[in-house]
Amino acid sequence: MKKHGKKVLSLILAGAMMWSSALPVFAANENTAPDADDIVVLYTNDIHCTSDDGMSYAAIAGYKSEMEAAYGADNVTLVDNGDAIQGAVLGTLSDGEWIVDIMNEVGYDLAIPGNHEFDFGMDQFLDIAKNQAAYQYLSCNFLDNDGNAVLDPYTIVSYGDTDIAYVGISTPETISKSTPAFFQDENGNYIYSFCQGENGQELYDRVQDTVEAARADGADYVVALAHLGEDLASRPWMSTEVIANTTGIDAVLDGHSHTVDAEQIVKNADGEDVVLSQTGTKAESIGQLTIDPATGEMSTQLVKLADVATDSPAYTAAQTYIQGIQEKYQDVVAEVVATSDVTLTVSDPATGDRRVRSAETNMGDFCADAYREVMGADIGFVNGGGIRADITPGDVTYGDLIAVHPFGNMICLAEVSGQQILDALEMGARVVGTAESGGFQQVSGLKYTVNTQIPSSVVLDDNGSFVEVSGARRVSDVLVENRETGAYEPIDPNATYTLAGHNYMLKQGGDGFTMFGEDNIKLLLDETMVDNEVLIDYLTENLDGVIGEEYADPYGQGRITINNEPVEIPEEPTGDLPFIDVDPDSWYYGAVEYAYENGLMNGVAADQFAPQTTLTRAMMAAVLANLENGSANTSGSFSDVADGAWYADAVNWAAENGIVNGYEDGTFRPDAPLTREQMAAFLYNYAAYKGYDVSATNDLAQFSDAAQVSSWAADVVKWAVGADLLHGVGDDKLAPTGTATRAEVAAILANFCENVADLGADEEVAA
């Protein structure tokens, strides 16, 4: 084994990118000719089928031929660092095979699987890797159920007297960022893994073992071909972390985070320099690693493909080949399905930064609206990572919509709880403010706020999947649109909602959304339409073929608020209450304190009161039972109140004493949100049961919506207003059929105890 002293030669000024104009940019300076002994490694990453948009692959072929002419064909190697076969029309219509054909034609030598190489299923990828690709796929940490590498962990390429080992490293995020079912058996047991241990050590150890094996096999240099990335959301598996926790790697050619990184120097576990580089995405550039085996010097640079000569035989041959493939689908993708008056974008027009994975965009609104309206759902969810292209003014073709949704996911309709919605939003927003997240939720029928200054308390398992929220939530003010009234109401964690989304998230729990999955939801409609077909249906049936001014604002319609204002999160409860979500300065603090100390209301968790959560009918019955210490002598008052349910005794006691009534069909509907007029009725009946004065009244003339009070509730609402229990809500409206939050109910209970029951603040409430 040869040992070379290694010296890193930096060609790139800090933060800058060096572009080549024609033939090579040489390693040392402009006056240095190519050394015939130099080794050149050309690299790409995250191309995502970019040949739909031009001849990038033709330019890669052309540049490779230039390098071969300058350095010799035997000294040039072309590699891809993942996410090549998926992302646009070419991949979607062929399950990735046409891209593999093009890569064969261009002359790739090596590749590694990124997370999106698996998007067409495990069988398809393995067939591509083992039978269709003329180049070799590598991955040291893509393992089967026995812990064996599915692909070769490394390969050694000889360049004269110098041997370079290429080690493949796939992101452990693959297990969650592709469809989880692809890595499971028919019983849902994982039979493949990517060394996704929680603290990263499992990955570091696997890489270290592979590097040492390659060195023992005679490698003079080790070049890691990685799909790890530099996003903080990828911790602990970022490329920089792998370098910092291993030794023996000379250079890491990276992908996954779409970072434009011409050359970065990172210290390994022994304090030695390791070169790290990544080309961005969509083949804007090709990377070039140059190694001088005589001196050990190495450098990296990025070469802009737009500047590569287009008159070489290699360029022409690849161009002709690509055009032949494009002709196969041109008629399909060119079909005009609608028009657009506006630009729908995934990026921030002011900065050019991709926005759809961290904030609202008009494209996100459009896609989420399509899901919701076509499926007739309460709420529509679209993960930001599933929205991949803009739509510009003018004709909108089938190809345009495939580019927006290239994955071919199937749309589902499911019944889920409000709590699952809240957990999903929290999961999607966990890195907002610091990094992108493909799971960030673009929404329809919903509004929410993310406070980036609240540290995420989302707990993930070793697979990067959701486990729980263990502390303060950064998502707040979650409101659901009432389809009948158009008004937005606080989400009820205990209520059920219909949710439209795709199978990747709802059925498979993709992107780590394990609060969903077939075992955790009730599927109402299973895989009804392909995602891009839903967009077409929405355009033609709901928008009459025109994307209009309602989608003009690139920042969306105000559904998602990103709050970057500093906020203090108490580690310990403030005041005398154990609840960290009840601010001592809030208007309702005293009411919550009164209700809690007198045993009227408890928290939803040990440190959470959930003041903005809507009460259900069962919860209100339980509150009154607490007030009375009541228990029933009978059971089975209602057909939908099962013996043993947490609320059964309270509901049966309340029914036995004439405090609550059911519906004509014999149900109580315990999980239904409690309306304000129902709350008035519950309190009136309880006051009458106790013998309190219920003579107070008010004519309701002060309220503009007094006519909306149900006929059966007229007298009890007049009493509640007259007794100073029920007040108006903005613009002098009573909102009798609206719901009340837990904070509001706490305030009403405090008023009831003081004004109706004639109990002072220092008196015991219970009879």
How does this structure look, described?
Helix 1 (56-71) runs parallel beside helix 3 (97-106), helix 1 runs antiparallel to helix 8 (313-326) and helix 18 (676-690) crosses helix 19. Residues 1-32, 569-573 and 760-767 have low confidence and may be disordered. This protein folds into 3 domains: 7-326, Metallo-dependent phosphatases (Purple Acid Phosphatase, chain A, domain 2, 4-Layer Sandwich); 336-563, 5'-nucleotidase,  domain 2; 589-756, no CATH class. The protein is α/β, with parallel strands linked by helices and 767 residues long. It is built from 20 helices and 29 strands. The N and C termini lie far apart (88 Å). The strands form 7 sheets. It has a 7-stranded mixed sheet, with helices on one face. Strands 7-8-10-11-13-12 form a 6-stranded mixed sheet. Strands 20-17-26-19-27 form a 5-stranded mixed sheet.
Task: Name its key features.
767 residues, alpha/beta, Purple Acid Phosphatase, chain A, domain 2, 5'-nucleotidase,  domain 2, seven-stranded mixed sheet, six-stranded mixed sheet, 20 helices, 27% helix, elongated, disordered N terminus, disordered C terminus
